[in-house]
Design goal:
Bound molecules: pyridoxal-5'-phosphate
Radius of gyration: 20 Å
Mean pLDDT: 97
Low-confidence stretches: none
Number of strands: 11
Distance between the termini: 51 Å
Strand content: 15-25%
Largest sheet: 7 strands, mixed
Helix content: 40-55%
Order of helices and strands: HEHEHHEHEHEHHEEHHHEEHEEH
Number of helices: 13
Length: about 325
């Protein structure tokens, strides 16, 4: 990153950013890509470009766009949501066919998330996304894919990132999650879409000057940290299996397909925070997440097998002291 060749990316003149955008577009099988500071901004840009004020986005109630980008979508952009729920965030094509705002309002976009964060890292197969995309196309609606963790989905399914992205008109990806880059995301689509996305990025204040130092970290992550994601998935599964057999915790390990484990602390909700604090006191961070009494544990490139054993010891100890009567 320190040695990255840089230029002014506001003028499209940063060679390292351009290289990252070209590599990303190729990996996703899209015409072009645009580097953005965060995944949130990437999703917000997609909504801004695909829809008009007053139109609704059809998506899962626990999608990241609803849970985190809601104020940008509704207050800054003046769009609205039409939400569905169930199957750990994965919508079915029939739901797209039936989706209609009850006040007769207009739909402008369908959005899916792969993997699904609030759904414990649930994965859509290529075939499942293709069916949703076909239903959207039949209604003349574009499909945006929040692929913050598309590399995890690709690792879990064996499908390439290009295959997983193919059914969607646009896709947002993050270099800063399991891939381990310090900063950055991208949005990809047609050249015409990316041209408009540049304007939306400027509107949100996300056009950066010598951003090549950040892009260099993302390129490193793409080249060195994708092949190892299967290790994160195996470690997450091991964590889930231990949680499942720990008194006071509940999770179905068969549901854990990628690097996110959301589990339930049984009993009164207040116990969750005590449990999280007791785990943190042993140097292991988990977060309250996903509803009352639930917490999230995520595996990533800074957690090796020894780290997982430390996490297991911490969770078992905290469960014994806080959760077992
Ligand atoms: C599915 C999903 N989309 C988008 C984002 C937003 O990414 P960022 O935090 O980089 O803005 C996240 C972040 O956790 C995410 O999980």
């Amino acid at each position: 990153m320190a040695e990255a060749e840089v230029g002014d990316d506001v003028f499209g003149e940063d060679p390292t950013v351009r290289r990252l955008e070209e590599e990303t577009a190729a990996l996703l099988g899209k015409e072009a890509a645009l580097f953005v500071p965060s995944g949130c901004m990437g999703n917000e840009i997609a909504v801004a470009v695909h829809t008009r004020p007053g139109q609704a986005v059809f998506l899962d109630r626990f999608s990241h766009i609803v849970q985190v980008e809601a104020k940008a979508v509704t207050e800054l952009l003046g769009r609205r949501f039409l939400m569905r729920e169930g199957d750990r965030g994965r919508m079915a094509p029939e739901e797209v066919e039936a989706a209609r705002p009850s006040d007769g309002g207009e739909l402008g976009l369908v959005e899916v998330e792969n993997t699904h964060n609030w759904g414990s890292g649930a994965v859509y197969s290529h075939a499942a996304i293709e069916r949703v995309a076909r239903a959207a196309r039949r209604r003349g609606l574009p499909l945006h894919l929040d692929g913050a963790r598309i590399w995890n989905a690709s690792t879990a399914t064996g499908a390439t990132t290009a295959a997983l992205a193919a059914p969607a008109d646009t896709v947002m990806v993050c270099y800063s999650k399991g891939l381990g880059a310090p900063v950055g995301s991208a949005i990809a689509g047609t050249k015409a879409f990316i041209q408009e996305a540049r304007g939306a990025r400027k509107m949100f204040g996300g056009a950066m000057r010598q951003a090549g130092i950040l892009a260099a970290g993302a390129i490193h992550a793409l080249h060195h940290h994708v092949a190892r994601l299967a290790e994160d998935h195996a470690r997450a599964r091991r964590l889930a299996e231990v949680f499942a057999e720990t008194e006071g915790l509940a999770v179905d390990p068969r549901e854990i397909e990628t690097n996110i484990v959301i589990a339930q602390v049984e009993g009164p909700h207040e116990r969750l925070h005590e449990f999280v604090r007791a785990v943190a006191a042993q140097g292991v961070l988990i977060a309250p997440f996903g509803g009352p009494g639930r917490f999230r544990a995520v595996t990533h490139l800074d957690v090796d097998d020894a780290g997982i054993e430390q996490a297991i010891t911490a969770v078992r100890g905290a469960a014994r002291s806080v959760l077992v009567p």
